[in-house]
Design a protein that fits this description.
The complex is a heterodimer of chains A (about 300) and B (about 325). Chain A has about 300 residues and is mainly alpha-helical. Chain A contains twelve helices and no strands. In chain A, helix 3 crosses helix 5 and helix 5 runs antiparallel to helix 10. Chain B has a domain of about 190 residues: P-loop containing nucleotide triphosphate hydrolases (Rossmann fold, 3-Layer(aba) Sandwich), CATH 3.40.50.300. Helix content of chain B is about 30%, strand content about 20%. Chain B has eleven helices and twelve strands. In chain B, the strands form two sheets. In chain B, strands 6-7-8-3-9-10-12-11 form an eight-stranded mixed beta sheet, with helices on both faces. Chain B has a four-stranded antiparallel beta sheet with strand order 2-1-4-5. In chain B, helix 3 packs across helix 4, helix 3 runs parallel beside helix 5 and helix 4 packs across helix 5. The longest helix of chain B has 18 residues. Classes of the chains: A mainly alpha (about 300), B alpha/beta (about 325). At the A-B interface, helix 1, helix 9 and helix 10 of A face helix 2, helix 3 and helix 4 of B. The complex binds adenosine-5'-triphosphate, iron/sulfur cluster and magnesium ion (MG). Magnesium ion binds next to helix 1 of chain B. Chain B: GO terms for molecular function: ATP binding. Chain B: InterPro entries: AAA+_ATPase, ABC_transp_ATP-bind, ABC_transporter-like_ATP-bd, ABC_transporter-like_CS, Oligopep_ABC_C, P-loop_NTPase.
């Protein structure tokens, strides 16, 4: 026992968790760090960009409205930094607002998939047997539905609304994640630390939360960051078809659609600015996700 | 000690797994893999029972069935008189604190996302959720110190330790509830030879100190020799011999045990020559389709006609030795 008292006084050594290791590896990856900075800048733009302009996204500049094609280009004099849209509204304000919607759609989709998909998949995989069978068949059935078609129908029947868009995204985004989480769970479930927890009598929900989910999280986070851009593209596609968010609200997809429609008049800024934000953000998400994957799973490189 | 009643008493324990043949239709009935097929043994308080057998003979499955981590097909597992297999979940949970397990792969048996302090504390917090933080910490430090891990390492993660240290942490986790039985499933197979001895000695010291019973699984006899009071030899889910350790090494009864002993390097060459029984070359039969009669007959040099017809029962041969063989 004297031995115990000896070490009792010694300083407790800090450990390096796997997360800390991953963070160090991530910060050594230049492309990933650059992408992270881009994403931070884009988010700041979405959150605070509106403060830099006197214009709102729905106000029409009556002075210039008749001459958008000739006078509506980007200019500091008129305070339309990105020019005007075809209706004479400030494009900068509209891009800020579109960025908000697009990012929100990406993030909500990713969050739903992380929370619902991970817990659903981990539960199915861990409990196994008939419950697993039923739960995964439900996923199969939902996946077999041509969701784009269903969503378009919903939007047509119930009218275009951002709420409907979120419902649609919520319905589909977690399905892949549930499958991924289940697959990973099956392999983690047979690890001895889970057996040890079962043998000690730890309850099933606690095992899932404490032992399974934290070990899934690496894969889940990577998949979620890669899901954000695909959700954004999904929304953009819907908006491109003219079924997305409702005016005066807008999104990257809707803005690109609008700009593309004006291309033949030479008002390229209308396409260029939203397209620029759309592209750099998507690239940044992909590189960021890639960097996370390398950092979280060094064996997989 | 023989007058005492056994701590654990296993009777006719069977664990069968359903195996679907490849490409089978959903409605075809699955094949039965008899991983454990009628095992009987008693474990006395304070005793160490070694279990040996080739890979795949059902050692882990037997251990897991006792802990009710796989469902048993039949039989009884009496723990201090209660049949564990017929308890409900809550009743079983109460007994889980009395029996703990140590695993083969030391690193894999520790959750990589938890600190070793959290890992060792988990059983305590699970069974006594009301224990104060300070008390948990003291208990964790004490038990880590006992297994030879500096208690100021509690905030470190498993990957920061060596295999031997990880196994010590696993032992600490098993000890924190002060159980009566620890089942060690090949606890040293994954370790370097030099470290194997340290871990085995640690287990023996702790056993002496706490009066624990141990079930010690290994796939070769030399490891078990040092630690066991009695040894049980498994073959394809069947017990072929249970003996006092001394007796088993001196005069192995079953032809399979003899073959195993002859494979262990023995310092005295004369003893070696006497025990010479070579396994026939035949492969280990599949547990999906075990041989009729004596499961060992396809590899037994002494097999006779009767061996294919009836299964030899485990019979007492005196000197605390039980052997399942028609001929010997
Ligand atoms: N969950 C399971 N489902 C189906 N078959 C299983 C399962 N677990 C084990 N088996 C089979 O049961 C048999 C016994 O396996 P077990 O793991 O108990 O062997 P073991 O003696 O511990 O071997 P090892 O020395 O390799 O650990 C093997 O044939 C194995 O394939
Ligand atoms: S019963 Fe027959 S086959 Fe089995 S071990 Fe004895 S002699 Fe060999
Ligand atoms: Mg095993």
């Amino acid at each position: 026992m004297t031995h115990v008292t000896n070490v009792e006084t010694a300083e407790v050594v800090k450990g390096r968790s796997l997360w800390q290791d991953a963070r160090a590896r991530f910060f050594r990856n230049k492309a990933a760090v650059a992408s992270m900075i881009v994403l931070i800048l884009v988010s700041l733009f979405a959150l605070f960009g509106g403060m830099l302009t006197p214009w709102s996204n729905e106000e029409i500049d009556w002075n210039l409205m008749g001459d958008v094609r000739t006078l509506g280009g980007p200019s500091f004099e008129t305070k339309h930094y990105f020019g005007l849209d075809p209706l004479g509204r400030d494009l900068y304000a509209r891009v800020v607002q579109g960025t908000q919607i697009s990012l929100m759609i990406g993030i909500v989709g990713a969050l739903i998939s992380v929370i619902v998909g991970t817990l659903y998949g981990a539960t199915a995989g861990f409990i196994g047997g008939r419950l697993d069978n039923i739960m995964m068949r439900i996923v199969d059935i939902l996946m077999a539905i041509p969701y784009m078609f269903v969503l378009i129908l919903l939007l047509v029947v119930f009218g275009r609304s951002i709420f409907m868009l979120f419902v649609g995204i919520g319905l589909i985004s977690w399905l892949d994640m549930a499958r991924i989480a289940r697959g990973q769970t099956l392999s983690i479930k047979n690890k001895e630390f889970v057996e040890a927890a079962i043998a000690t009598g730890v309850s099933t929900p606690k095992i899932i939360i404490r032992h399974i989910v934290p070990n899934l999280l690496g894969v889940v986070i990577v998949y979620a960051t890669l899901l954000v851009p695909s959700m954004i593209m999904f929304e953009s596609f819907i908006s491109f078809l003219g079924l997305g968010v409702q005016e005066p609200l807008t999104s990257w997809g809707a803005l690109i659609n609008e700009g593309a429609g004006q291309m033949r008049y030479g008002t390229l800024w209308m396409l260029g600015f939203p397209l620029f934000f759309f592209l750099i953000s998507l690239f940044a998400f992909f590189f960021f996700g890639d960097g996370l994957r390398d950092a979280l799973d060094p064996k997989d490189r | 000690m023989n007058a005492q009643s056994p701590l654990l008493s296993v009777r006719d324990l069977k664990v069968w797994f359903d195996i679907k043949p490849k490409g089978a239709m959903p409605w075809t009935s699955p094949d039965k893999l008899k991983a454990v097929d009628g095992v009987d043994f008693d474990l006395m308080p304070g005793e160490t029972l070694g279990i040996v057998g080739e890979s795949g003979c059902g050692k882990s499955t037997l251990a897991r069935a006792i802990m009710r981590m796989v469902p048993a097909e039949g039989g009884t597992v009496l723990w201090l008189g209660d049949d564990l297999l017929s308890l409900n979940k809550q009743g079983m949970r109460e007994h889980r604190k009395e029996m703990q397990m140590i695993f083969q792969d030391p690193l894999a048996s520790l959750n990589p996302r938890m600190t070793i302090g959290q890992i060792v504390a988990e059983p305590l917090k699970t069974h006594y959720p009301d224990v104060s933080k300070a008390e948990v910490k003291t208990r964790v430090r004490e038990v880590l110190d006992r297994v030879g891990i500096l208690p100021n390492m509690i905030n470190r993660y498993p990957h920061e330790f060596s295999g031997g240290q990880c196994q010590r942490i696993g032992i600490a986790r098993a000890l924190i509830l002060r159980p009566q039985l620890i089942i060690c499933d090949e606890p040293v197979s994954a370790l370097d030879v030099s470290i194997q001895a340290q871990v085995i000695n640690l287990l023996m010291d702790i056993q002496q100190e706490m009066g624990l019973s141990l079930i010690f699984i290994a796939h070769d006899l030399s490891v078990v020799k040092h630690i066991s009071t009695r040894v049980m030899v498994l073959y394809l889910g069947n017990v072929v011999e249970i003996s006092e350790a001394e007796q088993l090494y001196r005069a192995p009864g079953h032809p399979y045990t003899q073959a195993l002993i002859s494979a262990v390097p023995i310092p005295d060459p004369k003893a070696h020559a006497e025990n010479e029984v070579m396994l026939l070359d035949a492969d280990l039969p599949s547990p999906l389709n075990p041989p009729s009669g004596c499961v060992f007959r396809t590899r037994c040099p002494l097999a006779e006609k009767v061996c294919a017809e009836t299964k030899p029962p485990l019979t007492d041969r005196g000197n605390g030795q039980q052997v399942a063989c028609h001929v010997i």
